[in-house]
């Protein structure tokens, strides 16, 4: 069916997910149920604003891929696009692992934060960050060890295989940072801090990433293409660190206030 088959496959997968959700709600759910509700414009706006970072993340994927393909095709041709696509398979799979951790931890973080257990919410974020960091280390070690056989799975062209092996080592170093950035963005969304979450997503999905895509390849050649993701994530990690530092200071101040009240 060509391109139409790809579109149909996406539609079918979404419908299957919807059917599974509806079956659960109508037949198996014990706590959550579909029911009547009153529309609240204020709540709707808050939800849209708080979910803006996830919207940015979804949008940035397509825009970033277009930008990557545009630059690579213009400067390095079809071989470069092929090599980048094959390396990108690993990135896509790892991003799904990150999303799984993020979506799994978000309800716990949100529940604790809403119950005024902000320290516990922060501890869940830290623990989840450790998990995704370890997952990133495992993926990096595995792919560095298997980069040569991995490159032979998809193509037989020696020059493309060389680009894949070289690019894999540089590109996947972004896994050390991307998990922490993503989980922290999930955390800020779960705690209602839409601005911090949106800034992190906007940085790693648009501003810094597009700046790297349109500059580094022209400065360092194909190596610059592989450098775009690690540089973006490293810069974003600095931004993430600023927001986390501000939050830590806020938690410490609240602890001090509560402690002084207790002594009084």
Keywords summarizing the entry:
264 residues; mainly alpha; 10 helices; disordered C terminus
Describe the protein's architecture and organization.
This protein has helices spanning about 5-30, 40-50, 50-75, 75-115, 120-155, 160-170, 175-190, 195-215, 215-220, 220-264. Mean pLDDT is about 90; it is low at about 260-264. The chain is built from ten helices and no strands. With about 260 residues, it is mainly α.
What is the H-and-E element order? HHHHHHHHHH
- Total beta strand runs: 0
Distance from first to last alpha carbon: 74 Å
Largest sheet: none
- Overall SS class: mainly alpha
Number of helices: 10
Topology:
Layout lengths: L2 H26 L12 H10 L1 H24 L1 H38 L3 H37 L3 H14 L3 H16 L3 H20 L2 H5 L1 H42 L1
Briefly characterize the structure.
With 264 residues, the chain is mainly alpha-helical.
């Amino acid at each position: 069916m060509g391109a139409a088959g790809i579109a149909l496959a996406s539609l079918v997968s979404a419908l299957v997910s919807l059917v599974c959700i509806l079956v659960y709600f109508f037949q198996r759910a014990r706590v959550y149920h579909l029911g009547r509700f009153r529309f609240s414009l204020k709540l709707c706006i808050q939800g849209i604003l708080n979910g803006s970072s996830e919207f940015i993340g979804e949008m940035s994927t397509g825009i970033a891929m277009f930008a990557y393909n545009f630059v690579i095709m213009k400067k390095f041709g079809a071989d470069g696009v092929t090599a980048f696509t094959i390396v990108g398979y690993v990135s896509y799979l790892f991003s799904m692992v990150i999303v799984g951790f993020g979506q799994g931890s978000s309800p716990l973080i949100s529940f604790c934060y809403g119950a005024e257990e902000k320290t516990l919410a922060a501890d869940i974020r830290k623990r989840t960050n450790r998990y995704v960091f370890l997952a990133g280390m495992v993926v990096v070690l595995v792919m560095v060890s298997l980069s040569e056989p991995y490159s032979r799975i998809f193509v037989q062209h020696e020059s493309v295989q060389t680009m894949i092996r070289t690019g894999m080592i540089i590109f996947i170093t972004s896994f050390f940072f991307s998990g922490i950035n993503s989980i922290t963005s999930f955390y800020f969304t779960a705690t209602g801090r839409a601005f911090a979450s949106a800034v992190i997503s906007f940085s790693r999905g648009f501003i810094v990433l597009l700046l790297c895509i349109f500059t580094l390849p022209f400065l360092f050649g194909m190596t610059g293409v592989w450098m775009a993701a690690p540089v973006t994530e490293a810069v974003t990690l600095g931004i993430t660190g600023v927001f986390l530092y501000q939050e830590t200071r806020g938690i410490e101040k609240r602890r001090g206030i509560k402690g002084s009240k207790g002594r009084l």
